[in-house]
Amino acid sequence: MRKNWVKKRMIRPKTINKKWIKTFLPKTLFGRSLLILIIPVILIQLISTYVFFDRHWNKMAGRLSYAVAGEIVLIGRLVETSPDPAAVEKITALAGDKLDLIISYRPGETIQKTSSGPQEGYWASYIARIFAKELGQQTQNPFTVDVDFQEKWVEVGLQLEGGVLNISLPQRRLFASTTYIFLLWVYGSSTVLLLIAVLFMRNQIRPIRKLAIAAERFGKGRDVERFKIEGAREVRQAGQAFMDMRTRILRQIEQRTTMLAGVSHDLRTPLTRMRLQAALIGDSPDAEALKGDIEEMEKMIEGYLNFVRGEGNEQPVITDMVPLIEGVINLARRQGRDIDFTHEDLENLSMTVRPLAMRRCLTNVIGNAVKYAHHVWVKLEKPEKKTVLITIEDNGPGIKEEKYEDVFKPFYRVDESRNVDTGGVGLGLPIAMDIVNAHGGTINLEKSARGGLAVKITLPQ
Ligand SMILES: Nc1ncnc2c1ncn2[C@@H]1O[C@H](COP(=O)(O)OP(=O)(O)OP(=O)(O)O)[C@@H](O)[C@H]1O
Ligand SMILES: [Mg+2]
Asked: Is 461 close to ligand 1, i.e. is its CB under 6 Å away?
């Protein structure tokens, strides 16, 4: 029992703390830097407020109370030593004039204990407590203290030998209200400080946010030509590095595209010549094999050229995905296959894509399904915000799981399919993957519940 308890206590705090911190920590850089600034400021304020009240203010209130208590006790003694009305009147007049104390003496009375109840409000009881303490130290006689904080007035009753001395005095004799100004300064100035910091920080964080957006856009294969390098030195460095990287990647893509286009184009002419020559040779089995090879090579070159075309200078545009997919499906249906298309009833299924490339990608995947199966199901959905999922399923033979990676390699074809009359070159899936990646998405293969292959294309919206 005890062991369990120890175990729990040892393990739990760590996991809870982490989660706790994560849920309360702001997610944005702006929020976090603001927190870094606010926490010390609030801490300093709390500490200084505490120190101020504890050390300075308490002490001062004590001193003021001490002085007033002394005066009251002194007057009490004077009245006690000469209680005749004329002398008392003289004393009260003097006290009113010089000490700001309004005094009345009621001979023969005694203090009702109940008259000094708990004070209303925090400050009233605070003043009463301190004053009562000081007065209690200076006299043994019973007394009452009543503070009316609203009216800024304090009533004191002191029991003397022959009666009760009532003293009214203004609150300011016990309580320095100007000390509020100190607090106003502390909190006001730090509020101003925070406001200024917020303004400056926003300006500092804006370039970082812009860089993040630009990198995200570029990752999705969109243009970021208008990105301006700005901000603090480190941010500029990161921005410059990003722009250099972008240039390098663009140049590489361009080089690859040009090279592919050049090679394909150059190979075409000799191939055409070879086909003509093969036709002249006649109909021997060797000639047939040669013709088959030539045909295959032509297909490969066609594949290359398609690949290259897909990466031309096509610009991304906002496209409604439903008609785009429908167009591809309608073409595929001409081959006499059943294709079901379902999509969620969502208004916002349009996204920024390169329509020609996207159409080529879907044509390749749906084309495969149509080639290897009889029934195809295409589904368009939005599993989460800003993500679109296209699933292409079929009831064909499918692909073995260990080949999932291989089929994305150029010219790779699963063995059995070599014999099928379909006769592709093995570029369909690599091209599809290239296009999906260029849109910042992913393409995955799975086993479909319909029996065949399920191709899942996830695209950021
Ligand atoms: N829906 C599918 N069902 C079964 N096998 C498939 C399916 N899609 C692809 N494959 C297998 O993956 C291999 C690679 O496909 P890929 O589209 O890259 O080439 P291809 O279809 O053979 O030729 P291409 O598309 O270039 O004309 C295919 O040869 C085939 O064996
Ligand atoms: Mg294919």
From this structure: no
Specify the CATH number of the domain 314-460: 3.30.565.10
**Ligand 1 geometric centre to CA of 164 (Å):** 110
- Residues with Cβ within 8 Å of 432's Cβ and at least 6 positions away in sequence, in order, are 360, 361, 362, 364, 365, 443, 457
Ligand nearest to the CA of 409: 1
- Map out the domains of the chain as residue ranges: 29-175, 314-460
Question: Which ligand places an atom closest to the C-alpha of 374?
Answer: 1
Minimum-distance ligand 1 atom for the alpha carbon of 431: 18
For the Cβ of 407 lying below 6 angstroms from any atom of ligand 1, the answer is yes
Tell me which DSSP letter residue 341 carries: E
Q: Which of 362, 404, 407, 425 for a ligand 1 pocket mutation test, highest count of atoms within 8 Å of Cβ?
A: 407
Which of 94, 89, 118 minimizes the C-alpha distance to 105?
89
The CATH code of the domain at 29-175 is: 3.30.450.300
Name the residue with tokens 């050049």.
262
Is-same-fold flag (29-175; 314-460)? no
For ligand 1, atom 7, the nearest C-alpha belongs to: 368
Consecutive 10-residue averages of pLDDT for the chain (461 residues): 47 59 83 87 86 81 91 91 87 89 88 63 83 90 86 88 90 77 84 90 91 88 83 93 93 86 86 88 83 83 73 78 92 86 79 88 92 92 90 93 90 63 75 89 94 94 83
Contact call for residues 371 and 406 (beta carbons, < 8 A):
no
Residue 216 token pair = 């995200």
Output b/e per residue, 32-66; b: 16+ Cβ within 10 A.
ebbeeeeeeeeeeeeeeeeeeeeeebeeebeebbb
Whether the CB of 257 sits within 6 Å of ligand 1: no
Measured between alpha carbons, how far is 64 from 68 in angstroms, rounded to an integer? 6
395 lines ligand 1 (CB under 6 A): no
Give the pairing type, strands 163-170 and 317-320. Answer: unpaired
Q: What's the pTM?
A: 0.59
